[in-house]
């Protein structure tokens, strides 16, 4: 027992205590700096992620691929069931396809009649999902495109169908997408047939809640939810999902994007909606004259 | 002989860091992007405590601090907070219990459980104290309980696979002399 005591004393030498105090102080210091000047530390975090995760990618990519392969194999075992289901769905889809084609033609005709110009600058960069947040408390994924590819904070990320999230945190070659399911995500949206404005706010569940509806009576499960473009962060009209009611009667959004497997994401280049800032001034005769004089043929 | 022991020591330290990096990497695999209602155990904490209570010289303070700070940064947690708590907790366990070779495993497990609960509580208290956003309660409680339950598995794995056992008395003497 005496020996044990001496060993304990050895481990608690003053030097060791000093080291512990210094390390703990530095770590708490980092935490406090994060709390006080969050953007700076978050940039540092993005840089660290940018340095570390691509280095792990050579190991992560094959492991991910292998596990997905095993999962695919498991799904092969249910192949005949799936086949039957798929054939049923295909029949339904063909009916829908006809409807969609007709609607598309009608839509094109109507757009033409109204002389509508769709935003020609809405292009996208496609990135591969490298890693997820690694923590059950945060919902985000890391893409392999970053500042090098011209990604900007706040841009929308979609899979083929629906909105997935928004860029938050950019490194040189990586960028983080905060998913709609994350507790810190809330997106202004419009519920489609009724035109009600609402906020799609994530709460760590697979279906984000639909908050701040003006009159929930006008909204039914099955309605389409699209981005409204309020706040100027997102372009308007991106599909988010469908309204659904949870057992407690609360309205939620069943997301259109396939969250089961996020592999490739499109980051929409959004150059901001132009704003009209001054209220317009009175047109005075001088200005009229000046513009007349400046015209080359006038 | 002393040189051999010393290089073995550094190999085990490197193994600790490499093992932790492997765990972090496994967490980052983009397999499950759907939010879950529960949380897996915190493997890093369980293994760190298991190693620190068996061979404290394998897990130096700086290695623990580095590993957990990296995990904080990569896992989108408030950076530094959990790292500081784990470093202090490990050091406390090390001072109180590392010397007691003949202590039973049950006692050790209870001490570790209390420490995990204390770390979870301190984490939440500090976050609410600085008015930061708290992680949801239910998954953190599940994570805490699962970490406690996982601890014996971590001990078993470290002892059988990685060979981290309490030193026998003869070794302990040389260790004590070195430390």
Give the topology.
The complex is a heterodimer of chains A (298) and B (179).
Chain A: H1 2-11, H2 14-36, H3 38-77, H4 79-114, E1 124-132, E2 140-143, E3 156-158, E4 163-170, E5 175-179, E6 186-191, E7 196-201, E8 209-211, E9 224-227, E10 239-245, E11 251-255, E12 264-268, H5 285-294
Chain B: H1 2-28, H2 43-54, H3 61-74, H4 81-97, H5 105-129, H6 137-160, H7 169-178
Helix pairs in contact in B: 1-3, 2-4, 2-6, 3-4, 4-5, 5-6
What's the arrangement of strands in the largest beta sheet of chain A?
Answer: 1-2-5-4-3-12
- CA-CA gap between termini of chain B: 17 Å
Give me the CATH superfamily of the largest domain in chain A.
Rod shape-determining protein MreC, domain 1
Q: Please identify, by name, the CATH architecture of the largest domain in chain A.
A: Beta Barrel
Radius of gyration of chain B (CA) equals 17 Å
Beta strands of chain B, count: 0
Span of the ends, CA to CA of chain A = 107 Å
Amount of beta strand of chain A: 15-25%
Fraction of residues in β-strands of chain B = under 5%
Percent of residues in helices of chain A comes to 25-40%
The largest β sheet of chain B comes out as: none
The average pLDDT of chain A is 83
Q: Can you tell me the residue ranges of chain B where pLDDT is under 50 for at least 5 consecutive residues?
A: none
Classification by helices and strands of chain A: alpha+beta
Task: Tell me the greatest interface.
Answer: A-B, 62 and 57 residues
Oligomer classification:
heterodimer
In helices, the fraction of residues of chain B equals over 70%
Q: Within the CATH hierarchy, at the fold level, what is the topology of the largest domain in chain A?
A: Thrombin, subunit H
């Amino acid at each position: 027992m005496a020996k044990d005591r001496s060993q304990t004393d050895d481990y608690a030498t003053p030097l060791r205590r000093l080291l512990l105090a210094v390390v703990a102080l530095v770590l708490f210091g980092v935490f406090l700096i994060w709390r006080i000047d969050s953007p700076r530390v978050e940039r540092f975090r993005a840089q660290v992620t940018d340095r570390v995760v691509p280095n792990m990618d050579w190991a992560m990519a094959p492991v991910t691929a292998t596990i997905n392969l095993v999962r695919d194999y498991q799904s092969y075992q249910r192949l005949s069931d799936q086949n039957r289901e798929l054939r049923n769905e295909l029949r339904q889809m063909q009916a829908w396809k006809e409807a969609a084609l007709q609607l598309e033609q009608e839509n094109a005709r109507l757009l033409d009649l109204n002389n509508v110009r769709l935003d020609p600058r809405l292009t996208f960069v496609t990135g591969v999902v490298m890693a997820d947040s690694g923590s059950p408390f945060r919902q985000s994924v890391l893409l392999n495109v970053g500042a090098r590819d011209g990604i900007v904070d706040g841009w929308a990320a979609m899979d083929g169908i629906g909105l997935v999230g928004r860029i938050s945190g950019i490194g040189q070659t990586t960028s983080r997408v905060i998913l709609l399911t994350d507790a810190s995500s809330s997106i202004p949206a419009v519920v489609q047939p009724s035109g009600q404005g609402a906020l799609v706010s994530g709460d760590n569940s697979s279906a984000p809640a639909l908050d701040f509806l003006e009159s929930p009576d006008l909204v039914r499960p099955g309605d389409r939810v699209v981005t409204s473009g309020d706040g100027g962060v997102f372009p308007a009209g991106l599909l988010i999902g469908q309204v659904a009611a949870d057992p407690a009667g609360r309205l939620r959004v069943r997301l259109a994007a396939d969250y089961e497997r996020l592999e490739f994401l499109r980051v929409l280049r959004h150059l901001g909606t132009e704003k009209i800032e001054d209220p317009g001034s009175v047109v005075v005769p001088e200005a009229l004259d000046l513009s007349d004089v400046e015209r080359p043929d006038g | 002989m002393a040189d051999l022991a010393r290089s073995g020591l550094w190999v085990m330290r490197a193994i600790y860091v490499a093992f932790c990096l492997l765990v972090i990497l496994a967490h980052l695999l983009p397999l499950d992007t759907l939010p879950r209602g529960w949380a897996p155990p915190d493997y890093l904490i369980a293994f760190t405590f298991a190693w620190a209570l068996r061979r404290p010289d394998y897990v130096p303070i700086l290695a623990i601090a580095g590993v957990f700070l990296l995990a904080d940064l990569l896992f989108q947690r408030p950076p530094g907070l959990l790292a500081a708590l784990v470093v202090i907790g490990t050091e406390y366990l090390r001072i109180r219990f590392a010397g007691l070779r003949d202590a039973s495993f049950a006692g050790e497990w209870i001490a570790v459980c209390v420490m995990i609960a204390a770390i979870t509580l301190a984490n939440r208290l500090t976050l609410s104290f600085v008015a930061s956003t708290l992680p949801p309660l239910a998954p953190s409680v599940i994570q805490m309980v699962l970490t406690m339950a996982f601890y014996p598995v971590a001990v078993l794995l470290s002892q059988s696979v990685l060979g981290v056992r309490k030193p026998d008395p003869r070794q302990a003497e040389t260790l004590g002399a070195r430390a």
